[in-house]
Structure formats: structure tokens, C-alpha cells
Amino acid sequence: xxxxxxxxxxxxxxxxxxxxxxxxxxxxxxxxxxxxxxxxxxxxxxxxxxxxxxxxxxxxxxxxxxxxxxxxxxxxxxxxxxxxxxxxxxxxxxxxxxxxxxxxxxxxxxxxxxxxxxxxxxxxxxxxxxxxxxxxxxxxxxxxxxxxxxxxxxxxxxxxxxxxxxxxxxxxxxxxxxxxxxxxxxxxxxxxxxxxxxxxxxxxxxxxxxxxxxxxxxxxxxxxxxxxxxxxxxxxxxxxxxxxxxxxxxxxxxxxxxxxxxxxxxxxxxxxxxxxxxxxxxxxxxxxxxxxxxxxxxxxxxxxxxxxxxxxxxxxxxxxxxxxxxxxxxxxxxxxxxxxxxxxxxxxxxxxxxxxxxxxxxxxxxxxxxxxxxxx
Length: 376
Hints:
Elements: H1 8-12, H2 20-34, H3 43-59, H4 62-78, H5 90-93, H6 99-102, E1 119-125, H7 127-132, E2 134-145, E3 161-162, E4 171-176, E5 179-184, E6 193-194, E7 207-218, E8 227-230, E9 246-252, E10 258-261, E11 264-272, H8 273-278, E12 280-284, E13 291-295, E14 304-307, E15 323-330, H9 337-348, H10 356-368
Parallel strand pairs: 1-9, 11-15
Antiparallel strand pairs: 2-7, 3-6, 4-5, 8-9, 10-11, 12-13, 14-15
Helix pairs in contact: 2-3
């Protein structure tokens, strides 16, 4: 009687709720552990490897997995979906896995166009520049396509030579137990060709180092540590591939008296005791210049006034924020004798109406302690 097949989820040691990435990771782990090249002559390891591969073939296919979840192994057999090594596309399963065995690199060789590397540039701007936007000229070092050989790497008038080892495919076949695997050609490093006469300007690389000036447009409303992407301003591509991208990391210099919350500008403004008590019209700073602000009589320290539309533009174009001005009442120092006498007279004729907050506070304190504490 043939052995009963194990549950595919049990084989890969994953729950039935596992997503595609979890299944792939589990199979990769199992395949690496039981691969015949790591376990030469071990028939049990080879069987576990085959068993894991069959489980992966089924569970990585949404249609087959649905049939298996409903009807099990019998459902797959009756529908002709059973696992096996003859299924189309099976070789693709191993492309990422066997990089670990053969030192990395894709099995698909040759001079394939490759995108250039991305670059990053740190840019410091002022608070005002972040608020209103600015255009900055920056310089970056990057790899450019060699103008002498047009990126070919070979001396002008000569050509690259087809690799004799892989015959231009960029890959060689390596034996791996019971089947064969393609890996990058070690002689041409997967390029499929070699250079007999390198370009004198780039020494065969097809690219040269260069410093370039770029005009970076910083949009109004950008905030500290946000990034801008400049498409196609990174390293030059390889074998005709597209350029990489340039990412600009923004650092906003702290302002002397403005801070920011989203699109709102915050500012603290000191006012005198008399301005707070009697009311006044004062000048306050905004990003667009000083403006007048009316202080209401009896204003308390910490009160906030809003200046409509004096904040920062929204990056998504949804209007401009406000400025919030918080007043801080400044206590006078170094008083003259006459000033002291006047303040003492003021205190002697004070009433609940002149000090509503403190009188309310000490009234509550007296109630709390049964009237045993005097108003200090």
C-alpha cells in the first residue's frame, strides 16, 4: 500500500491562513535545508526536498490551492492538477533559491539593460524657503555614460568579444543532483561578452565619474525630513538601461521665533502688564512681514490669537494655514521706588474683578481646606 501523502501545509510548516510570501519563505527554508547538494547520498533529504517542492507548486498557485483546500489530494488528482516536476515554469521557482548555492546573480545572463543606482542628497533650507518654496542649484557626483565609447566599454572602432565559455548567453549549466541549474558565467560575469581593447576613458566600464549641477525645485510647504524624488537624475544605466533616481532629503533650519505644526505657524509674543490689562495694538511678526494685532483688555498669559492665512501652504494644494500668536505677559524688573509705590497702591485697592483667575483659585482652596488657608 503506497504511503499516504502528508498535508502540504504540514510539509512547509505554515498555517492554512499563510499568504503567498509566507509560503515562499517557508519553501525556501525547507529547500535549502534538504537540497541534495547539501545532503549528498541522503535519500531521505532528497525525498523531503521533492515533497516540499510539490507542496510549493500547489500552494503557490491560487487555483490549485483553492481546489486543494476544498477537496484535498484527491481533488487535485481528479482535476489533473496534481503536483509533479513536469509543470511549466518550474525552473523559475528556483531562481531566487539557488543564488545561495552558486554565489548570487540571476540565471538569466547576457547584456541586459540595467537601471542605474539611485542617489541621495541632503539639502538644508531655511524656514522661509520651506514655507514659500525655492529653487536650489546643487552639485552631485554620479556615474555618467562614457561619451568616448557610448557606454560600450570597448575602444572606439573595436567591439566586445562574445564569451567563449557561455557563447554569449551569460550563463553556464551547473549540475545539482537530479537536475541542472543555470548560473552566471564566471568568466564574463554574466555579461555574455568580454573586452579585448578597453576604452581608454572609462577603462572598459562604460561609465565615468562626473560632477553635475542640478536645479532642484523645492515646493512650498515642504517639511523637515521629507524627501523629494527627481526621476532620472541618479547614476547612468548599464547597457542602455534607464538612469536611477535622485532623492533629496530636506532639513529645515530652526527659526529664531517661529515653529510649525503642519500648515500652522506658531509664535510667542511678549506683552507688558499694562498692555494685557488695558488692551493694546501691537506689531507681531509673520512670514510675510510684520502685521498689527489688537490685544483685548484683560488678556491673560498663554492666550492665543489667530491670524488667518498667515501660515504655510499645503503640499497637496489645499489652501494656506494660519498663524497662532500666543501672548506671554512679561513681569517688569528693576522697578523704581515710585513704580513700586504705585503697584502697592494698585494691589491695596484690588478686587475680585481685577484678578478673576487668582480670586477664583484661592476661593476653591479655602473651600477645600475649610477656610484655614488665607489668600497669599
